[in-house]
Amino acid sequence: MAETKGKKDDSYDSYFEMVQSKKKLPRSLQESLTAAFAKIPVSSFPNVPGGKVIEVQADVSIGDAVKVLSETNILSAPVIDPASKGSSDWRKRYLGIVDYSAIVLWVLQNADIAAAALLATSAAAAGVSTGAAGAIGALALGATTPLAVAGLTVAAVGAAVAGGVAVERGMAKDSSEAADKLGEDFYKVMLHEEPFKSTTVRTILKSYRWAPFVPVASDSTMLSVMLLLSKYRLRNVPVVESGNASIRNFITQSAVVQGLQGCRGRDWFDCIAAHPLRDLGLPFMSSDRVVSVEENELILEAFKKMKDNRIGGLPVIEGETRRILGNVSIRDIRFLLLKPELFANFRELTVKDFIATVAVATNDSGRTGTAITCKADSTLGNVIDTLASRAVHRIYVVSGEENQVVGVITLRDVISCFITEPPNFFDDYFGFAAKELLSQ
After folding, report:
1. Share above pLDDT 90 across residues of the chain, in percent, rounded to a whole number
2. Is 226 left (phi over 0), alpha (psi -120 to 50) or beta?
């Protein structure tokens, strides 16, 4: 459900006010940390791998956009308006950010339009069962009834495989090979079948506005970036070159946490990283608000919970004890696509059986379904080390010998620990236009 401008502003403020109220740190320390980040220039932050930010032209087809994201191993990219060539105004040059998961969702929502063609080409050529594809369609549209599942099609199969697999580093070899084979057929469908063939990225951006394009200038500070990635919930922040509006860097939440890890040994970092989580009010979310799934629930229900709550992962727990048994991530949906022959009874597939089957099929029992956890007395520094070294987006806080789930800590939460927001900071720095973009 889309939020109104007022509701979004309130959610930003309420989250950050809650974070600040829970921190059990001297105010002078918090102000010192904020001041430290206000002195670190954005230009000092490492560039993206390869040194060049990948951009997607607004007038290319959705199929070509998928190719770009998949082949360059990224999840999202800024969208540039070719008609604005030479403009020094980033508001005219960039239309937004295209996100891979949003493309997949659009394909799913339009799948029924191209049902006959896709069923005759993509599914048949790839050997993918319509049952497995229908399960994914039902998930994306929020429908899980047998009738709804049966009526959906295979349009999203190649999209999820071609992109979701490509961005998962270190995946088993057989998964990558399967993605290559299925992705080739998917691209053919995207390029030659309607409505995909004639739909451009520009058209989709106008309809959905998935992610606002809110950059910082290359001469700004890391405080601006960290506030956008924490309080304002952006997953990435473009850095634009002053004077010509070209993108110099593209900073993500994960990159910032990895950067924080590299600051170990510096006084300003060590003074807060040594604190146990409770001193920082972590986890910020109370245990009764942690969305979870039990191992005997259907895997489709698990994915639907993620979609409905706009989260990327769930702890798998044991009934009323809330003992943690594992983890399922939105990325795991790829396995329903890669190995549909393993999930013939997907309507009855439980979370437990899903995790077990995937572990055997990929020879990866140590990674698939494993929950990354910490104790409440862990230090923030230890949590940062785990998030950065394991390349995960969340860590579950557990207590007692039974490892009962009592909270979750996300990348956003970690970044929030290091900063406060000076009064009227973004009003003074960005001005009215950027506030409007944040509220879209």
Report:
1. 26
2. alpha
Three-state DSSP class for 57?
strand
List Cβ neighbours of 58 (8 Å cut-off, separation of 6 or more). Answer: 79, 80, 81, 82, 95, 200, 201, 202, 205
Query: Do the beta carbons of residue 439 and residue 426 sit within 8 Å?
Result: no
Task: Give the amino acid at 232.
Answer: Y
> Is there a contact between 156 and 118 (Cβ–Cβ < 8 Å)?
no
Q: Torsions phi, psi of 32, nearest 5?
A: -65, -40
Helix (H, G, I), strand (E, B) or coil at 420: coil
**Quick one: which of 351, 277, 265, 347 has its CA closest to 314?**
351
**Cβ atoms of residues 340 and 132 within 8 Å:** yes
- Give the integer Cα–Cα distance in Å for 286 and 282: 9
Q: Please determine, for residue 83, whether its predicted confidence score (pLDDT) is greater than 60.
A: yes
Cβ atoms of residues 273 and 379 within 8 Å: yes
Hey, how many other C-beta atoms are within 10 angstroms of the C-beta on 254?
Answer: 17
Task: Place 119 in a pLDDT band, splitting at 50, 70 and 90.
Answer: very low
Tokens read off for 17: 């006010």
pLDDT band at 168 (very low <50, low <70, confident <90, very high): very low
Condensed to tens digits (0 to 9), the pLDDT of residues 258-317 reads 999 998 898 878 888 999 998 899 999 888 899 999 999 988 788 778 877 878 789 999
Radius of gyration of the chain (CA): 22
Residue with tokens 């769930």: 314
Q: Tell me how far CA of residue 412 lies from CA of 255, 370, 403, in angstroms.
A: 12, 21, 24
The answer, yes or no, to whether the previous bond of 315 is cis (omega within 30 of 0) is no
Cα of first residue to Cα of last residue in the chain, in angstroms, is 13
The pLDDT mean for the chain works out to 73
pLDDT tens, position by position, 18-32: 888 888 888 888 888
Q: What is the pLDDT of residue 434?
A: 52
Distance (Å, rounded) from C-alpha 68 to C-alpha 87?
24
Rounded Cα gap, residues 129 and 336, in angstroms:
10
DSSP 235: S
List the strands of the sheet with 76-80, edge to edge. Answer: 56-57, 76-80, 94-99
CA distance 125 to 189: 11
